[in-house]
Amino acid sequence: MSSTSAVQTFADDIDARPIAASYSDSVEQPLHCQQAGKVSCGNCRLSKICLPLELQAPDIDRLNAIIQRGRPLQKGEFVYRAGQPFASVYAVRSGTLKAFSIGENGEEQVTGFYLPGEIFGLDGLCKSSYASSAVALETAAICEIPFERLSELSALIPSLQRTFFQVMSKEIADDQQLLMMLSKNTAEQRVAALLLSISTRNARRRLSSTSFRLPMSRTEIGNYLGLTVETVSRVFSRFQKSKVIAAEQRNVELLQPDRLRQVASGG
Prior knowledge:
Arc Repressor Mutant, subunit A; 2 domains; four-stranded antiparallel beta sheet
């Protein structure tokens, strides 16, 4: 579920940083990453997921030239905060990030989880400021793509423009799917759908689709799915008792993927 659309409260005021801002009030400047110069769109193993298009070598070089790669993010570091002026979109190279917003009641609402190869930050396009905040759930590496330069390059490379239209369309579809799931589906359906989403996204990266580690806590899962952490734990227990999954802490194995699909679809 790569959506644009966790129960901690975060300070609202922080300086904008090109790559990351810390949870704390004292914010470190992004450090130069010695490995960043060795990574390019041409040799990135995630390029077919992140930007699934065929570009000629000169066009790949032009795209790579506008992408900024900083030091790895540590758990709890922000990429941007809600309300910060929109300047860039981002692609995950490694690790997992969480997007969330703060409601009028001051509570956090998780709006999405982003895995390697996925693009985030598009929610800033509408009002020229980010509608949500993005924070690293674990050590992560990202690519920053300045949107103004991307727009200029897209005008010269039509296939690049089409790809980003497709990415934006998928964001809208994912938001609609999430709203529909939260309004109608049972707790079992919601948890099954999330596990299957992670499974599918792992398969796209040629990782195991049946055995993986959840990068998010059960509290964050519950927040995202509109469930209490107790309900999430009960659903996991029921799935384990019925031999649909095996779970130990955050490690999950899908023992009966087909059965899980039936549950997700209401069967």
